[in-house]
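Figure-free illustration: sequence to structure, shown twice.
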Amino acid sequence: MPRLLDVSDDVRAEIGDDEADRLLAGENAPGGYDCTSCRTPGDSAQERTSTVLFVGDETAVLAFAHAGCLPSQVVQVAEDQLQGAVRSVADAPGPAGAAVPAQATAAQAVLGVTSGLLLIAGELHPALVIEPTGPISRPGAAAGGGDDFLPLLIEQGFMPVTGLTEPPRALPGWSVLLAMGRLHAVLQPGTGGAPSQVAWWQAHQPLVVTDGWRAAANKTHTVLVCAAPAGSIGRQPREDLLRDALDKAAADGRLVAAAMPLAGT
């Protein structure tokens, strides 16, 4: 029975025309499924469904989501993270906290990521705060050559922030991936003209966010991503302390930010 599947050009290019056609014909696609994003049941025979392909170096795993939750897309992840990311799709979310840090390796640097709500112009905005545990050098630069974290992000389109009085502008091609109610990755445009997105930051373990954070993200469909050099923010246990640290970093010229669309719920 034909399925109401969305198979993006990126997904089709990865799985091939024959496999894509078999999915659309219903040969290899499930009828009922649990949405990888909202965790509620879906039926590809009755409602529009997206195909989401997680791709590692050696393996790839195809998942399904309500089209209203996630668009059909290719998400590239490190091979050693792929199995853990796939297993996490079936995990139930754990207890929520006000500001929850996680770590992942990107460009040979460990990035700390904290989720929190920021009050800007009278409205609560879901935010991610990213801070490396040490200085970031440009690829190929000699060790000890200084911290290029902010200049590298500015070159990618992040904007310097001197005060959190208004939301930052949107950064085209970037997005924040939330699946099964947990934060999985910050995605950036593929390199070398590749149409698909790649993970700029990928969680070792999917990051739990609060119900309030998720509700605000679903309302605005946008996440504010703030970044500061090592030692600027620290691991703050409460959102008011996190805001104080962000305000100080901004006043010191040590904060950049961008708004990114939310992928998932």
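We now fold a second protein in the same way, so the two outputs can be compared directly.
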Amino acid sequence: MPRTSLRPVVEIAAQADYLTALRRDIHAHPELAFEEKRTADLVASLLTGWGIPVHRGLGCTGVVGILQHGGSPRAVGLRADMDALPIAETNRFAHASLNPGRMHACGHDGHTTMLLGAAQYLAAHGGFDGTVYLIFQPAEEQGGGAREMMRAGLFAQFPMEAVFGLHNMPGIPTGTVALSPGPVLASNNEFRLTIHGKGGHAAMPHLAIDPIPVAAQIMQAFQTIISRNKPPLETAVISITMLHAGDVPNVIPDTCEMQGSVRAYAAGTLDLVERRMREIAEHTGAVFGARVDFEFRRNYPATINHARETAFAREVLRELLTPAQVIEQTPIMAAEDFSFMLEAVSGCYAFIGNGDGEHRLPGHGDGPCLVHNPSYDFNDAILPLGAGFLARLAQRWLARPAD
């Protein structure tokens, strides 16, 4: 008989074939943001079959399972995302996407399956006094499903002391989990600017106001915000990813449009970057006699782990793994809308190693096994560890003294 701390992982591992089949079924039927009807139906059906009441419709297609044991009023939340990406899958194995132009290229099929595995174990074995809220969230990739579930009353209807999430991470060895307090993912922000010049003949540029040189000046100047305005020890990235102007070679266009992404950890740094971008864009345009319309949209805030909850999750992991398998998560500039939940409720977002591609089956497309890649596939070998960690996390949280 395994020691108590290991029982969830060991017993869930006995269901590995079932979890793998379930994950691959979800992978084969990817659905985009707020369209996760089949996935939500599957989740709700399985939870109900295990005797777990469900609440549906938060954030359009969100599902919340309410798993209660004992009489304690205490509660903890576990979250997984369900949506896929608008990517055409290049894999050719049996569980490849059946929905053209849609793909589980970020592992949300695995995240959903791990939380289902934890739910099945907790429903069968209990081991806690209180309530575990099982949050199956839509629209992480696009649309801010976490924010929409919260707007619809997630934490008002289901108050909880803490919330935890888990994301797979290619490049981290299989069998390891990474986590650290503080910022682990950046904020996600987008900008668009339109330079209004004066069109004309390419042979007579002196009679026009060419928006393209204006765009070139702005592009170069934006990078000085990172190198000369932002404090060197604060992190931010400005990436210009779209530039559109003109239709034919001999015509100077009236307008030029530029779009891109801004990432940062600290809100003050982001405020600085937005302000300087606006000033540079508008004033550079004025120098050349052009007008610049600048728009800046803040999508997701930075994902910032709470120190106490991160330390607690690390303790739980050390019950399950060796010290070498519990590693520090180096912050990266990708973004995640679990950040909205962490702004409202204390918690931690951890990263489970997806390996370096050793699990890849024949039939994968070209390219590395990275997220948002058309040949990506989740590593089914990590399902028991992820599900067991989530289950043990809930048990241990509700066993700790209340604040």
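Summary for the second example: The longest strand covers residues 187-196.
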